[in-house]
Amino acid sequence: MKAAALKAGSPETATPTTTSPAAVERSVSAALERWEPEVVGLSHAIHADPELSGQEFRAAKRVSRLLRSAGFSFDGPQPLLPASFSARFGAGELVVALCVEYDALPTIGHACGHNVNAACAVGAALALASVADGLGITVKVLGTPAEETSGGKVDLIGEGFFEDVSLAMMAHAGAEDVIGGSSLAMGMWDVLYEGRPAHAAAAPSEGVNALDALVIAQTAIALARQQLPPASVVSLIVTEGGSAVNVIPERARASVEMRSPSLKNLRTIEERVRRCLEAGALASGSALKVTPTGNAYAELRQDRYLSEAYREAMSARGRAVAFNEDPVASTDMGNVSQLVPSIHPLLGYDVGGAAHHTAEFAAHGSSASADRAVLDGAFGLALAACAAAKDPRQRERLLNVRR
Q1: Domain over 185-292 is classified CATH 3.30.70.360
Q2: Distance (Å, rounded) from C-alpha 134 to C-alpha 265?
Q3: Which of 25, 142, 338, 394 is deepest in the core (most CB within 10 A)?
């Protein structure tokens, strides 16, 4: 029974031993080999059964079932988000968090490869459990839903599930192996204008055109872009703009997404965009309501030591990992990285040249190349955590994060 092979540690065995790096690597490799069918099967099952943000109930159950079979216990209380969970193995002072994200995108499924992300994190957790007692670590696995929308990791931060964490890690599906990259801070708003309806031909002057307000706001935002901080992005789509061409629109709604290299610059952008939205309301006479959708995402900070340890471990698997600090997209892992040392490498596999968030990218998520990436990434994450746990200076640094 695999559950018997990994027995939870006790306080008496929670301090590091003199286990050699070679022995640790052998244990991690053996654990991954032992659990390979289950880890790869988990990736395929999540890929074949995509669930939208915040509704990843079946994925969370699949992950939880596998962790329980490996001897992980589940914390009490559990997170409030229904598709999240908190599980752990071992009793060491150094707490290593593995973040498991598993949400898909509407109509195109796992077009960002979150099935790969999930299985890789779980594989790393199972591998670390095999050495937890000898290294004096606790392996903490957090199910973190809704990365594509509201940011489940931010909610878990607010609930205190990262308070005991010394370092956090996960890997993200990609077309190539990259470490060190940042991400863009991001905020999202729902924008609603409310005016007054009227017959567009018989009595247009009696109406207040909410769609006009939105057009003015869009124009103002377009003109403001040249004065925004460098590398900033503002995206807007109209989600409601009237019901009939011969009726002055009484309601207009839009979704706005703002990104910038830092939270500080994001606040500058938000102030500027809000003024543009207010200009539309003022010019048209409409009422304006701005509602944040989900949590604001902070920029990602990847820990240099853990990054280099990951690169070295991946080289043992025959993978050359590039170091690139350029920001890529946005992630709620950025918020985690503002609290504790973290890594979030891109984990490459053959995607046939397809870009993220496309059906073509999703089609490659259960390929042999993706399966190999899951196992290699799990090895890299586990060995990076092991290196930090065994290095006295790094161990002390990481323990001081939460003291």
Answers
A1: yes
A2: 44
A3: 142
